[in-house]
Write a structure and sequence with these properties.
The chain is mainly alpha-helical and about 90 residues long. The protein is about 55% helix and about 0% strand. It is flat.
Length: about 90
């Protein structure tokens, strides 16, 4: 987008805000799961392994997985640094 002369800072800030909201929600869910496990509830089963091809994108193939979120966060951080886009504050 930047190479085409289109604005990049606003979309980068929006995606960064979405990722931050997701991270906060995941942290809250993890706390709840830890409390339930401590009370004797069963843990979720381990998810199946996923095989990726050389041309597959983890960000698109499994956007909601922890690895996909981590990769998206790194990409957004790099874009934000390169475009001086404002990032949201931690809540």
């Amino acid at each position: 987008m930047q190479q085409m002369g289109l604005p990049v800072a606003t979309p980068v800030s929006g995606v960064a805000g979405d990722l931050l909201s997701d991270a906060v929600a995941l942290a809250d869910d993890s706390k709840d799961a830890a409390k339930n496990t401590a009370k004797g509830a069963q843990k979720n089963p381990t998810p199946r392994a996923v095989n990726y091809g050389a041309s597959d994108s983890i960000v698109f193939a499994q956007a909601d997985s922890p690895r996909g979120k981590a990769m998206a966060t790194l990409l957004i951080a790099n874009l934000a640094r390169g475009t001086n886009a404002p990032l949201p504050d931690r809540r």
